[in-house]
Write a structure and sequence with these properties.
Layout (H helix, E strand, L loop, with lengths): L7 H11 L4 E2 L24 H4 L1 H14 L3 E3 L5 H6 L14 H18 L7 E6 L12 H8 L6 E7 L4 H12 L4 E5 L1 E2 L2 E2 L14 H12 L3 E5 L9 H6 L6 E4 L3 E4 L2 E4 L5 H14 L3 E2 L7 H11 L17 H6 L37 H11 L6 E5 L5 H8 L4 E6 L2 H13 L6 E5 L11 E6 L23 H13 E12 L4 H10 L2 E12 L8 H10 L6 E2 L2 E13 L16
């Protein structure tokens, strides 16, 4: 193909832009087709109508030519998807159709619609392709497109609804430019970055990354850069943003409505008059090209054409928040939302987590850690009480008890590094004056004091015997540490005290009940949670399953996944019914 010549329609568009006249694109095609004969694959977005009902496609093109559009796009948007994946184009007899014939038919139908209205001298054909042109294994390549066009090329190529700017996209664009017709690119972007059809933001702020990409596209020979396939209120500010980086003609053509399971839901409140007002707003910002994407129709394009006919291009800047002046928008202090509150009217967003750091080598949290912390926080456990934290780890429970107003909290852990970590975090949270710690192995440990509140969140993982020479009993059932705590509560728990101990569903409930009864204790479940079974259990999965089979521990599964229930038991000395009192900390709430 001769790449030095410019198609007649492209020259008309170029001349209009040179005279600073706003170029008007057509609107949605798939959402205008009344019947989608043979349309079974939504990914092709109405393109199968080219094979099964071309007359309907022709009627849609005619309606946009009659509405005054300067550029009418082919109904080939999904062509790249069909060739890059497993989508197929079928005719009325459900026979597969050659993609090059579909491409040529798409161009011919637009040409015919233009000729039917006698607008050969002032209307251009844009060949549409979606973002799958940059998909790995894409079937639509520039050399094949050149063959498909043959001696009847479009006036320009419009690669639209692009999203990611990967390094590979620059190579694809470079090849498209080499085919001959001018290339326009259109992206789903707003001032917040990647944007979807519902206005959802797919990524974080990009800074000037997209702007620098726009500059690169200009250097590659792209003729225009546009924004499409997003709600109209997300368009504002994009022309201002891009103009800082490129001198290319810039345009917008947003959606009206959104996609549902029942098809496209049109935005009934936006008629032609309202759309024309939006078009003028984009023109005031500096848009050179204006049109519509899905949900827009000929009435919207006709109204925009009338409103934009003599409208000069403006230079009004719009900020990320839609402000008239970007500088004012940047200077405005951020809006502060009221915090989310729980039922006790306490703020929970952000959560009032203590400031916790984990030292190197200290074990990470285990099942029940956050369940226990939440209960301590919700119930203000420990206020005005002497407390003991067994298995303190990084000290989350120790610190929270102290923050709740405990008079003293003593932390125990078998790992001296964990004890040091707990004391460090107590200092970090300003409660070091009420916290002490000691390294202790629960098996030989003998309580030397009594506490009103005892908290114990301990590992519970059944272990198959591998080292019979160890001084510590093998934790075959996974309950060794829990049993040690329960057996020592009679000496460690004050007469009116309460112990909060986590027990997982891997442990036998009947064994726990027997042990509590044997030591004059009783328990009540005050909180519980359901989580995925920890990945750390995978290496010992066979033995854990064996232990569950041998006991009354339930094998919990949801769908095909193993889950773990963790219960927080409130344990106390057995008392006569008349002697029972509410937990001591609740009197201070």
């Amino acid at each position: 193909m001769d790449t030095t010549s410019t198609p007649a329609g492209a020259q008309l568009v170029r001349d209009a832009l040179a005279r600073q006249r706003c170029v008007v694109l057509d609107g949605g095609i798939a959402t205008q087709l009344e019947h989608k004969h043979g349309q079974e694959d939504e990914r092709l977005w109405g393109m199968e109508a080219l094979a099964s009902s071309p007359a309907e496609v022709l009627d849609v093109h005619r309606s946009y030519v009659a509405a005054g559009a300067d550029v009418v796009t082919t109904n080939t948007w999904g062509l790249a998807t069909a060739l890059a994946g497993d989508a197929h184009i079928w005719d009325e007899q459900r026979e597969p159709v050659h993609w090059m014939e579909i491409a040529r038919r798409g161009i011919r139908l637009v040409r015919q619609a233009i000729a039917d209205h006698g607008r050969e001298d002032d209307c251009a054909v844009a060949f549409a392709l979606n973002g799958d042109i940059d998909r790995p294994g894409a079937g639509v390549t520039a050399p094949l497109l050149e063959r498909a066009f043959g001696d009847a090329p479009p006036d320009l190529i419009l690669a639209e609804t692009l999203s990611l700017v990967r390094p590979s996209l620059f190579g694809v664009v470079e090849q498209l430019v080499e085919t001959g017709p001018p290339v326009w690119l259109s992206f789903r972007r707003c001032r917040h970055g990647l944007c979807g059809v519902y206005g959802q933001h797919w990524g974080g702020p990009e800074g000037d990354a997209f702007g620098r990409a726009a500059r690169r596209f200009e250097e590659l020979g792209v003729q225009a850069l546009l924004i499409n396939c997003i709600p109209p209120d997300h368009v504002d500010g994009m022309i201002s943003y891009l103009r800082d980086f490129t001198d290319l003609p810039l345009g917008v053509y947003p959606n009206l409505g959104y996609l549902t399971n029942a098809g496209w839901r049109f935005s009934g409140e936006v008629g032609g008059e309202q759309f024309a007002e939006m078009a003028l707003r984009w023109r005031e910002e500096g848009a050179d090209i204006v049109g519509g994407c899905c949900g827009t129709g000929p009435e919207h394009i006709a109204a925009a054409r009338t409103a934009l006919r003599d409208a000069p291009r403006g230079h009004r800047r719009r900020g990320a928040a839609g402000a008239d002046d970007a500088a004012i928008a940047l200077a405005r202090p951020p809006r502060r939302s009221s915090p989310w509150l729980d039922r006790s009217r306490r703020p929970v967003s952000p959560l009032p987590l203590p400031e916790i750091a984990r030292h190197r080598g200290v074990a990470r949290s285990i099942p029940g850690t956050y369940l226990t912390w939440r209960y301590l926080y919700d119930e203000n456990v420990g206020a005005h009480q002497r407390c003991l934290d067994v298995g303190s780890g990084v000290g989350l429970q120790t610190v929270q008890l102290a923050l709740n107003g405990a008079t003293h909290v003593h932390a125990l852990d078998v790992d001296g590094r964990a004890v040091a970590n707990t004391l460090d975090n107590a200092f970090r949270n300003g409660v070091a004056d009420r916290v002490t710690g000691a390294t202790a192995d629960l098996y030989p440990w003998i309580p030397d004091a009594r506490y009103e509140v005892i908290v114990a969140t301990l590992p519970q993982s059944p272990t198959e015997p591998t080292d019979p020479s160890s001084h510590r009993p093998i934790d075959y059932w996974g309950r060794g540490l829990v049993d040690q705590v329960i057996s020592k509560l009679p000496q460690a728990l004050a007469p009116e005290g309460v112990a909060l101990v986590t027990v997982t569903s891997i442990l036998s409930q009947s064994r726990t009940d027997e042990l509590l009864e044997a030591h004059g204790l009783e328990a009540e479940v005050v909180a519980w949670e359901l989580t995925d079974r920890p990945a750390a259990y995978d290496s010992n999965r066979e033995h854990i399953e064996h232990v569950i089979e041998l006991s009354d521990a339930p094998h919990l599964r949801l769908a095909d996944e193993d889950v773990l229930a963790t219960y927080l038991l409130e344990i106390r000395h057995v008392q006569a019914e008349d002697d029972r009192e509410q937990p001591p900390w609740k009197a201070y709430r």
